[in-house]
Specification:
alpha/beta; Arginase, Chain A; binds zinc ion; about 300 residues; about 15% strand; 9 helices
Amino acid sequence: MTTALIMHDTCARHVMSPSHPESPQRLAAITDQLKERHLFDLLSHIEAPEVDYAHLVRAHNNEYVDTIRSSSPSEGTIHLDADTAMNAWSLEASRRAAGAGILATEQVASGKVNSAFCAVRPPGHHAERQTAMGFCLFGSIAAAALYAVEELGMKRVAIVDFDVHHGNGTEDIVHDNPNVLFCSSFQHPHFPGYYRPSVEGQLVNVPLDAGTGSAQFREAIEAKWFPALEAYQPEMLFISAGFDAHREDPLASLALTDQDFAWITERLMDTADRHCEGRIVSMLEGGYALSALGRSAAEHVKVLMQV
Ligand SMILES: [Zn+2]
């Protein structure tokens, strides 16, 4: 199995404030663990390109993309909301994060690699069609899924999101697109605080109470996500891989362990093997306890690599 690791140095130059939990150290925590486990050198390393704006306007309207472009400061920091800011590198970092998703999709769909993990930031799943929020500027995974549909001609792609926060941005962009099934699990009530009701064959939302641990999480996912994925038979599987449902994470209150992220990845690999020759594109979303993030992401990537 060849798994690509798609990254770019500029993703570590996007800094919203010195103490912001969505920090450049998150990427180092992941690569450190991949090296520690002797996985890093077995990955196929690819630099994330800057996305073409044509790919972004499938997920966002033109005005929104123009606003983000024109908000980019030449120095200092500007705030888009209380949680989300841009420094001089943020626009390029966001374009490379989205560009990683597009390139990953092309590489996996064409069979150049079996799967890809995009270790990029800022994350993207909270960015709505016309609103930046929750540390996110562009809906990278939604743009990648829409590229698969509109450019590669796929009829059914699935996005699954196990970040502890609901992927409201992805939902906003794809909820009424019959070519995309979106499955999300999240702590509720918690940020962003809202979600749409599930719609068969289109949207599967699994809200979880604070304190939910491994057994309840696995039971809920088995009951809700997998029957929907089996019925949908996706041609490609996209993963919004947030690791902040970990019990050590400071931003939420679920109680998953490193092994839960290996388990969900194995289950998703099973699904992808059955329906789409194992084609998986995974993109980093949240995860703020640096040690737990590094360990959990390494578990996730190790399963993708099948080593
Ligand atoms: Zn999150």
